[in-house]
Specification:
The complex is a heterodimer. By secondary structure, chain A is mainly alpha-helical. Chain A has four helices and two strands. Chain A folds into two domains: about 1-70; about 75-115. Helix content of chain A is about 75%, strand content about 5%. A two-stranded antiparallel ribbon of chain A has the order 1-2. In chain A, a hairpin with a 2-residue loop joins strand 1 and strand 2 (about 45). In chain A, helix 1 (about 10-30) runs antiparallel to helix 3 (about 45-65). Chain B is α+β, with helices and mostly antiparallel strands. In chain B, a hairpin with a 4-residue loop joins strand 1 (about 145) and strand 2 (about 150-155). In chain B, helix 4 (about 80-105) packs antiparallel against helix 10 (about 300-325) and helix 5 (about 110-140) packs antiparallel against helix 8. Chain B starts with 7 loop residues before the first helix and ends with a helix. In chain B, strands 4-3-2-1-5 form a five-stranded antiparallel sheet, covered by helices on one side. The chains are: A mainly alpha, B alpha+beta. At the A-B interface, helix 1, helix 3 and helix 4 of A face helix 2, helix 4, helix 7 and helix 10 of B.
């Protein structure tokens, strides 16, 4: 809790960092290079993994520097971050796994030609 | 009385000015717990979206083909507009955190300026969101629905989508809009599509360069399947009506579920932004009349700041899952 000094310089640095990530995301989203978009890795394309990781990095930047989690007491930070990360990871894993299983079953019953 | 009422000064109970667990005030910690529960709510919605997306992996609409519009400019420009919206929200987060920073140094005028900029950014974002909805509801090319609920779209020789108007025949329309004055007195309909199914069928028969595209995605190329002429005629024979634009019941871009999730999740997020703006405005006026200057600290600004950053945080994920992945 460094009340005395101003964080202005750090704030602009974080903004530049978040903007850079967004620009990279947009460029990749428009270009969609085939070698990233069409190569499968662990259930989805490499491009989607890149998007996911960049998003989590952005989320870290916002939570740690804009929401000041970095300046909070260690165990307050952990009490906030750990449950959220664990519960969302848990939910996402089962829900996406289930969705893929439903898709596999549905595939045999969907007609595309008549 | 002293025996039953916690005195924050004497007993160190948790109230304004007393001892604080984790050096955090009651209000700030409760804001954090609210944010946690809201984060779980949003992850539930996005998880449901993910489930349906994986379930219909071979027929989900391709976002790059859906959100291609920029105000005042014609043509197909995927991503740019939503990237602009993302920047607006990130920038309003920056001004918010600058307001919190100025508040820690008791600089009232700076807090006023930065809170004002934050509110303006919020309005620009909500306005952009409204425009995005309007464009999505209006639609861009038009499509035809089959009797089993699937959607077929029309493409030219290069594989790009074309509007129904560009090839539909100009033969007279087979029906007029039903209003309460020309049909059964208690029935009416909101409007007819700009071209009728008959006109589309005739136009398709006379334009051999137009092909028909189904919702099915070829997972090797990640493109929708363009079918042969005879297959297209078979599909058109089981068509029921023309679909223009998207709503909760049908969607010219493909799966209706895509429109449902889009309206629900971006709507829920937009509602958060709107309430964030309202809370910011209340605090903004409190800053102007000097409430926090007299109180001796600007923690209220910090608390609404937490909420505002959370709204930004959610948008980062909505942006990824709806527009990028």
């Amino acid at each position: 809790m460094s009340h005395a000094q101003s964080h202005t310089a750090l704030i602009w640095k974080v903004f530049a960092f978040l903007s850079l990530i967004t620009i990279v995301e947009v460029i990749l989203g428009i270009a969609k290079p085939d070698f990233l978009n069409l190569t499968q890795l662990l259930g989805t394309s490499i491009l989607n993994w890149i998007f996911l990781i960049l998003t989590l990095v952005k989320a870290y930047g916002i939570a740690w520097y804009f929401m000041h989690l970095k300046d909070e007491k260690t165990w307050l930070r952990r009490a906030i971050v750990w449950p959220v990360v664990f519960l969302i990871g848990y939910l996402a894993f089962f829900v996406l796994y289930e969705g893929a299983a439903l898709g596999e079953i549905l595939k045999e019953w969907t007609r595309w030609t008549y | 009385m002293e025996a039953i009422i916690a005195d924050s000064q004497k007993n160190g109970a948790w109230s304004g000015g007393g001892n604080k667990p984790f050096d955090s005030s009651y209000g700030k910690m409760m804001m954090w717990f609210f944010i946690m529960s809201d984060a779980l709510t949003f992850s539930g919605f996005l998880g449901a979206y993910g489930l349906m997306r994986f379930k219909f992996l071979d027929s989900w609409p391709i976002a790059d083909e859906v959100f291609t519009h920029i105000p005042f400019i014609h043509g197909s420009y995927p991503m740019y507009y939503v990237a602009f919206m993302t920047f607006v929200l990130i920038f309003s987060s920056v001004t918010m955190v600058l307001a919190v920073d100025a508040g820690k140094h008791m600089k009232q005028n700076k807090v006023i300026l930065y809170m004002f900029l934050t509110i303006i950014g919020g309005f620009i974002f909500v306005g952009s969101q409204a425009w995005e909805w309007k464009t999505f509801i209006k639609g861009s090319y038009g499509a035809v629905a089959l009797n089993d609920g699937k959607i077929v779209q029309f493409v030219d020789a290069t594989g790009h989508q074309v509007t129904l108007q560009s090839f539909a025949s100009s033969a007279h329309n087979e029906r007029i809009q039903q209003t309460r004055s020309n049909g059964i007195w208690f029935q009416s309909e909101s409007g007819l599509p700009s071209v009728s199914l008959q006109q589309v069928k005739e136009g398709f028969a006379s334009h051999s360069e137009i092909s028909l595209r189904t919702e099915q995605i070829n997972l090797d190329t990640k493109e929708k399947t363009i079918v042969s002429r005879e297959e297209a005629n078979k599909l058109l024979n089981m068509s029921t009506h023309v679909v223009e634009g998207a709503n909760l019941k049908e969607n010219e871009y493909g799966k209706t579920l895509f429109a449902d999730f889009f309206f629900f999740i971006t709507g829920f997020h937009g509602f958060h932004v709107l309430s964030g703006i309202l809370i910011n405005i209340i605090i903004f006026f409190n800053v102007i009349i000097g409430t926090y200057q007299r109180r001796g600290h600007y923690e209220m600004v910090e608390k609404v700041g937490l909420y505002w950053h959370f709204v930004d945080l959610v948008w980062v994920f909505v942006f990824t899952f709806f527009y990028l992945i």
